[in-house]
Amino acid sequence: MTDPRLARDTEQGRYYTDPAGGPDLISVTNVLGCAVNKSFALVPWGAGLVADRIIADPIGTARRARTEKTTLRRELVALPSGTAERAANLGTRVHVRAVHLVLGTPYPADPEVEPYAQQLARFFRLWQVDFDRDIEATETTVFHRRYGYAGTGDLWLWLPTGRFRRRQLWLIDYKTSAKKPVTTVYAEQPMQLAALRHAPVALLADDTDIEAPRVHRTALLNLRPHGHRLIEVPSGRPVFRAFLGAVRTARYLHGAPKPSAYPSILPPWAPGSDRKAA
């Protein structure tokens, strides 16, 4: 993911500023990050990172457990979040590199990013993509003012996947990982693409509203250092309705009082109670 121009980070996560002057719009990724429970995948992943660190140096870890217990514990606890931040940073750089690749503009050398860019270039060659003819849009922000959300899509691409090789417009989201299998798909990812697909308004560089491209199909493009895979995911009305439920959940949670604001209730005869019996 890149940092779209109209997006801003708040205490409640990312929101988009509406250039038309309407209320701020919650971002698609903010909705899913807030309303979708990802612990089923993230907790085992984080535990695995810590286990791998210990297994890689059991003697040194045991020695530090005796001599640097507090420091070691702090490092192990921080390992998952630090790794996630580095992965997110890499993903952002890959997305920026993808835009430069599509537009044919220079990009500073970045050895960590280049293997992913090479896989993206292989994908374009495999599908014989002509950038001028086949790319409808890239890194474009879409709004759904009625439901109060916004998001930025990676690539709208025409591919000959219809009957008799008829061209169809695909909305494609890049997903990067150094270690995950190339076939990896998470349950909330179709909801992300459904949200982008069903947003009716797209914004041009000058903040002009236009009708968003009408998408036929949606897919993830999993990019790995040594491979790639285009995986179609559903994004029809049932998936979109599920996403709208997540929007309502996220907005409720963002507006809910902090837990410390909820009062404790005591019987009227308890010490310290200021409540009287009715």
Describe the protein:
- The chain is of the alpha+beta class.
- The protein has helices spanning 28-35, 39-56, 58-67, 69-103, 114-126, 131-134, 189-197, 237-255; strands at residues 7-10, 13-16, 25-27, 135-144, 149-159, 168-176, 201-203, 209-211, 217-224, 227-232.
- Strands 1, 2, 3, 4, 5, 6, 7, 8, 9 and 10 form a 10-stranded mixed sheet that branches.
- Helix 3 packs across helix 4, helix 4 (69-103) packs parallel to helix 5 (114-126) and helix 7 crosses helix 8 (237-255).
- The longest helix is centred in the N-terminal third of the chain and has 35 residues, at 69-103.
- The termini are far apart.
List the defining traits of the structure above.
22% strand; single chain; 8 helices; alpha+beta
What is the rounded distance between the termini? Answer: 57 Å
Question: What is the number of helices?
Answer: 8
Give start-end ranges of low-pLDDT stretches.
none
Helicity range: 40-55%
* Biggest pleated-sheet summary: 10 strands, mixed
**What share of the residues does DSSP label as strand, in percent?**
15-25%
Give helix and strand order, one letter per element, not per position. Answer: EEEHHHHHHEEEHEEEEH
Q: Assign the structural class, choosing from mainly alpha, mainly beta, alpha/beta, alpha+beta, or little secondary structure.
A: alpha+beta
- Averaged pLDDT, please? 91
DSSP strand tally: 10
Shape: globular
CA radius of gyration is: 23 Å
